[in-house]
Amino acid sequence: MRRWVWGMAAVLAMAIPAPAAVVPVVLTLDPATDAINTAHITASLSVLSDSDDSTVTGTMNTNLTLDFNPVTRQVTSLTGLEFTGGRVYFSDIHLEKSVIFVGGVTADGTNLEGTFDTPDSLPPPGAVTGGQFNAGDHTIILDHGTFTIQGTGNLSDDIPLTTLYLDDDPIEATTEATGTLSASLQGVSGYVATYGAVLVLPLTFEQTYTVSGFSVVVAGEGTLQARGTFTVQSPPLPGDANKDGEVDKKDAALLAANWLRTGTAVWHQGDFNADHNVNDLDLAILSANWGASLAAAAVPEPSALAGLAALVLLALCRAARRR
Fold first, then answer.
1. Alpha-carbon span 5 to 257, nearest angstrom
2. What is the pTM of this model?
């Protein structure tokens, strides 16, 4: 019996792999500062150009592809990023520029908003390597709001009041720059671990409109930073029938109580290999992981296996006598 248990332990008690998971995460933009979540927006018409700063708020819906260690719960790598929706909002801006004897132009941007997307043509998700990704894999689409442009002074007749509707002619652009993405463990409750994610995304967009025969270029740049939380549930430890995070005599008792159950067995009855039976295969899994816990996963020492074998045999004998 001891030799059999030791042999099965060598086969079954291997290092737990880091499984891949795709998790939806809603990222909320941090409060704006000069360095983050402030877009520097410029409108240019010929030699007339002016700029204003717009604060950016809102959320980005994402799917993150990651690998994690189900024992230590640490994220071992982030490999993919996909934007799936959410809305970002830009505060209103006022731009004004004039030249003496020539006149000037004003431009007001109001109710500007949009979203981020990862085009299907790439296909998604965009790759993340070493916590960095190419922002050019993703697209910003400003698809709501207006720009109202009007000439002043001597240009008032040449540039009448004109409103550009982003709903009809959205700004769509990609940024060829490097963004960063990270995720860190925040806490653990049983098999559920909570993580915090932080995204830093360079922002650049530009669009040319024709107003009364003049070309008006609307451009913006900045850096967006957003964060959110998500949870990942690890699979139960092999042999942890009652899912309390430890493989011990309580699990042995459940396996013993259902010994040789055929065709209908489930996990909490000792069916650890999902074949709906409770037999020596499940006993081997229990043996191989005896003493394991969520905090550590180690191959048990031979003395521990021998103690487990004696415990299980005793429980089986008691169960047999009751029958």
1. 20
2. 0.78
